[in-house]
Task: inverse folding
């Protein structure tokens, strides 16, 4: 059976305090899209953050000395740099105007996921949800769907362009582990663990373009491995990370 | 319109010298899957390499001193290490048994893409196609489809699990560039370039699992940007690469 990926076209602009599951259910009903236990729902981080009020007003931010220095050197907004630093628990790379950080949840990404695009305009910036797995779990229960993946667009070393990855999961195993199974020739598949939650996020990302895109995407026909779900599984442990 | 991702279920085992477009067309016809200009075909590197004879018989490989030393230290096959080194133009990381290299085509990945799984068994290993963009272009013409993405599963720094990425493209722009366009609030989208070829590869990867998977996947309903297509666009230039 083929996999079908459908974006919700009629979701309204999401604002702080909005009941996101209600907005999603309403848009799905309007578009005659059934949401049940067989459906995986991918939701862009931006609207999860906005609904949860994970928004910072830069006018209230007092930049530190480091934020001011870095911002001046690279033509950035020192208040935005301050928010990025505050949202980081470790700086992975700080070079040539680029800030790659580790967030409090262990994600490694540019700018701790702090972003001004589609944040509401003016001096507003979204930050990542406090606990994206918990956000995904709440959405899953409220929507009555099979699984939820909260996605964000991350850059990658060595490769140009952003790709959507999973920053929160509920209802599915984030990794598909093929270790111990054999290939078609009976050869053991030694190191084959697939980041299925990231592949689902990237697939949904095809319909989540920044402009005129759909921040909520329904995936049908894919058989995931049911589990509570945990983004921590996707994060490499420090002792195995060659690129700390 | 939703995107539909369908794997070809009846493709036979691919062997060196096989006419891959013929095998794909035959399987598609058998499965009543129409392949025309509206369809993007994703093809796993493994079967492209096998059809092109990009296979190495390890019994014919004489390991260098470095390959022997590294293999002995980490319990690897010195002949396989030799092939990996020969397929590299630069070592990015060589630590704790892991070899991350840059291939002659500029791809950065583990083991230069050399792999023994599903290679044909015994002492055989596949290497990457000589010129994956050219492979994709030939497949596109022979299949009469709209675009082709040749995919491989790559690991990533900081994140566990492999994800399929594009190593060869034909008929589509590998990057979707949103720079200069504005968000819903009129804010310029400064750095937003989406690696759409990689997102398509990841989406196809959902049906390309190693075991019992489909190495050929048809994508329908997705509007890509038509172009000759070039994987080089996906490779970060050295002067902008913070993780050389």
Result:
């Amino acid at each position: 059976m083929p996999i079908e990926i459908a974006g919700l076209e009629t979701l309204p602009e999401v604002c702080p305090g909005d009941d996101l599951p209600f907005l999603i259910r309403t848009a799905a009903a309007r578009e005659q899209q059934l949401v049940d236990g067989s459906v995986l729902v991918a939701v862009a981080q931006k609207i999860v953050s906005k609904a949860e009020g994970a928004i910072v007003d830069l006018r209230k931010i007092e930049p530190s000395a480091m934020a001011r220095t870095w911002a001046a050197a690279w033509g950035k907004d020192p208040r935005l740099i301050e928010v990025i630093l505050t949202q980081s628990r470790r700086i992975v790379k700080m070079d040539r105007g680029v800030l790659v950080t580790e967030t409090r949840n262990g994600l490694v990404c540019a700018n701790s996921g702090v972003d001004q695009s589609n944040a509401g305009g003016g001096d507003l910036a979204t930050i990542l949800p406090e606990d994206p797995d918990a956000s995904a779990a709440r959405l899953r229960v409220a929507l009555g769907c099979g699984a939820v993946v909260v996605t964000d667009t991350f850059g990658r070393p060595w490769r140009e362009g952003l790709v959507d990855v999973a920053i929160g999961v509920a209802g599915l195993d984030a990794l598909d582990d093929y270790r111990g199974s054999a290939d078609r020739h009976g050869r053991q598949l030694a190191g084959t663990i697939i980041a299925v939650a990231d592949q689902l996020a990237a697939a949904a990302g095809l319909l989540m373009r920044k402009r005129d895109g759909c921040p909520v995407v329904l995936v049908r026909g894919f058989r995931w491995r049911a589990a509570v779900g945990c983004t921590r599984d996707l994060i490499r442990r420090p002792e195995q990370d060659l690129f700390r």
Q: What stands out?
A: Chain B has a mean pLDDT of 94. The first strand of chain B starts at residue 3 and ends at 7. The CA atoms of residues 148 and 207 of chain B lie 16 Å apart.
